[in-house]
């Protein structure tokens, strides 16, 4: 019995040691490209692009999804928007290279407040808030709580409304007091690395994932124990939060555009995006056939056209969507064998799961 216990402890110690080593490797492979700002006892990390002389758009603030980091939105938008706007790409509290802060940051409202403080610290008075997936819940909270700082809202495949069912088991396990520590420190890294390729394919399906997506966006940063734990806490508390707070969306008065796909298997558009379009007076819903969960990458041009429209330009977003559909119809879809998530569920590295399982 003692020998078995010793062998178990040794195995756990080895697994934890491997995770510690790999965490350092992840950070060496994807070092911080942003700058940390103290916002009141803790630091938020962000890439800030000052307003260029050629700017023709309002300031833009980008909020990534669950299990992500600012590199995801940098990869989608920094290049295409070069020279057009002041931009702020944010690592959400407890993700990427941002510190977590207080317990309020386990909720979208707290994270929205943190980003509002960061915007103020960066000298940005008003901005278009761009939220992808889980970031959509934060963008909505921002619009409700900080209308004076909200030039407009752009939702990309947002998770904003209560959904039937729950979330995947590994979120609940990771959030548990003792077993969660063991899971995040000994199991997540090796298992996550095995499933990373398939998981990122799953995030894009049925659309093809860019071949350089993993190399550019650093999704392994989400496998670090503390980041994985924070993501699990975010996701386990999201449903109850949305049940309580989504009725407040009717208070949003800023211009809003929602871009979503009819083939998004991670966040159901008929619940979230259509719910937003119903709740925010004057908002525009742009639904694109054949689009999955990554409009930021697959229909970047439509997203930028939405930013232009929010900024006051005349843009026909529905026509842009039809053009995008034609383009998507000619792209090779993700292979069915490549759409398994890290731990066997629908998806975990990007966006909360809004399915019936």
Write up this protein.
It is a single chain. Helices cover 43% and strands 12% of the residues. It has helices at residues 2-29, 70-77, 108-121, 134-145, 169-175, 179-204, 213-217, 225-245, 273-279, 295-298, 300-310, 317-328; strands at residues 35-38, 43-49, 60-63, 87-90, 127-132, 150-156, 256-261, 284-288. By secondary structure, the chain is α/β, with parallel strands linked by helices. It contains twelve helices and eight strands. Helix 4 links the parallel strand 5 and strand 6. The model is unreliable at 336-357 (pLDDT under 50). The chain is globular and about 75 Å long. The longest helix has 28 residues, at 2-29.
Largest sheet: 8 strands, mixed
- Would you list the SSEs in sequence order as H and E? HEEEHEHEHEHHHHEHEHHH
Structural class: alpha/beta
Distance from N terminus to C terminus (CA atoms, Å) equals: 39 Å
How does the overall form come out from the CA principal axes?
globular
Q: What percent of the residues sit in helical stretches (DSSP H or I)?
A: 40-55%
Cα radius of gyration in angstroms: 20 Å
Main sheet strand line-up: 1-2-4-3-5-6-7-8
Mean pLDDT score, rounded?
92
Key words describing this protein structure:
357 residues, alpha/beta, eight-stranded mixed beta sheet, 8 strands
Give the SSE layout.
Blueprint: H1 2-29, E1 35-38, E2 43-49, E3 60-63, H2 70-77, E4 87-90, H3 108-121, E5 127-132, H4 134-145, E6 150-156, H5 169-175, H6 179-204, H7 213-217, H8 225-245, E7 256-261, H9 273-279, E8 284-288, H10 295-298, H11 300-310, H12 317-328
Parallel strand pairs: 3-4, 3-5, 5-6, 6-7, 7-8
Antiparallel strand pairs: 1-2, 2-4
Helix pairs in contact: 1-6, 3-4, 5-6, 5-8, 6-8, 11-12
